[in-house]
UniProtKB/TrEMBL annotation:
<feature type="region of interest" description="Disordered">
    <location>
        <begin position="1"/>
        <end position="25"/>
    </location>
</feature>
<dbReference type="InterPro" id="IPR023393">
    <property type="entry name" value="START-like_dom_sf"/>
</dbReference>
<dbReference type="GO" id="GO:0008525">
    <property type="term" value="F:phosphatidylcholine transporter activity"/>
</dbReference>
<dbReference type="GO" id="GO:0005737">
    <property type="term" value="C:cytoplasm"/>
</dbReference>
<dbReference type="InterPro" id="IPR001666">
    <property type="entry name" value="PI_transfer"/>
</dbReference>
<dbReference type="GO" id="GO:0035091">
    <property type="term" value="F:phosphatidylinositol binding"/>
</dbReference>
<dbReference type="Pfam" id="PF02121">
    <property type="entry name" value="IP_trans"/>
</dbReference>
<dbReference type="GO" id="GO:0031210">
    <property type="term" value="F:phosphatidylcholine binding"/>
</dbReference>
<protein>
    <submittedName>
        <fullName>PITM2 protein</fullName>
    </submittedName>
</protein>
<dbReference type="GO" id="GO:0008526">
    <property type="term" value="F:phosphatidylinositol transfer activity"/>
</dbReference>
<feature type="domain" description="Phosphatidylinositol transfer protein N-terminal">
    <location>
        <begin position="1"/>
        <end position="189"/>
    </location>
</feature>
<dbReference type="InterPro" id="IPR055261">
    <property type="entry name" value="PI_transfer_N"/>
</dbReference>
């Protein structure tokens, strides 16, 4: 859906380079995709005119072996930069302590940022009433809308309501001396 919304002519949107099944990869067997995001339309034209073409594209490689997925973003123009996102989908309300089996050192460097799909604020320009879990009721499953204390309702009635948590581990690498930790911290804070 987002790919269609972002595409508005040549040099914009998303280009799918590869979409194929894989065996024995991250998470076992799954589907591999390789995409290119043409981001020129998101950059002011005066700035776009001085950048090389390689700076106006972001590549995404994705391995989907549900309930595990891995997505890696790179930009050919910035060779030593990547964002890696691993996801585990679990049927719980977000109570796994170490789903990624991180070492004690990795755990110390990790910042936990729980997201509540009902309570967390949404920027006005991204809000869509038809996607609001406080308003949406599924015709097919007859579930919804969710109340403000939906997680506690689940905990009070285990097994009565289906639930899923997406655990995400986001790693940023920016290997340029002098700027590495500042840029990595900025991306984690903003992203």
């Amino acid at each position: 859906k987002k790919s269609r919304e972002e595409t508005c002519g040549e040099g914009s949107g998303v280009e799918i380079l590869e979409n194929r099944p894989y065996m024995d990869g991250p998470g076992g067997n799954g589907q591999y995709t390789h995409k290119v995001y043409h981001i020129g339309m998101h950059i002011p034209s005066w700035f776009r005119s001085i950048l090389p073409k390689a700076a106006l594209r972001v590549e995404e490689e994705s391995w989907n072996a549900y309930p595990y997925t891995r997505t890696r973003y790179t930009c050919p123009f910035v060779e030593k930069f990547s964002i890696d996102i691993e996801t585990y989908y679990k049927t719980d309300p977000g109570e796994h302590v170490n789903v990624f089996n991180l070492s004690p050192a990795e755990k110390r460097q990790t910042i936990l940022d729980p997201i509540d799909i009902v309570k967390d604020p949404i920027p006005p320009h991204e809000y869509k009433a038809e996607e609001d879990p406080k308003l949406y009721k599924s015709v097919k499953t007859k579930r919804g809308p969710l109340s403000e204390d939906w997680i506690q309702e689940y905990k009070n009635n285990p097994g009565k309501y289906p639930i899923m948590c997406a655990y995400k581990l986001c790693k940023v690498e920016f290997r340029y001396w002098g700027m590495q930790s500042k840029i990595e911290r900025f991306i984690h804070d903003v992203g």
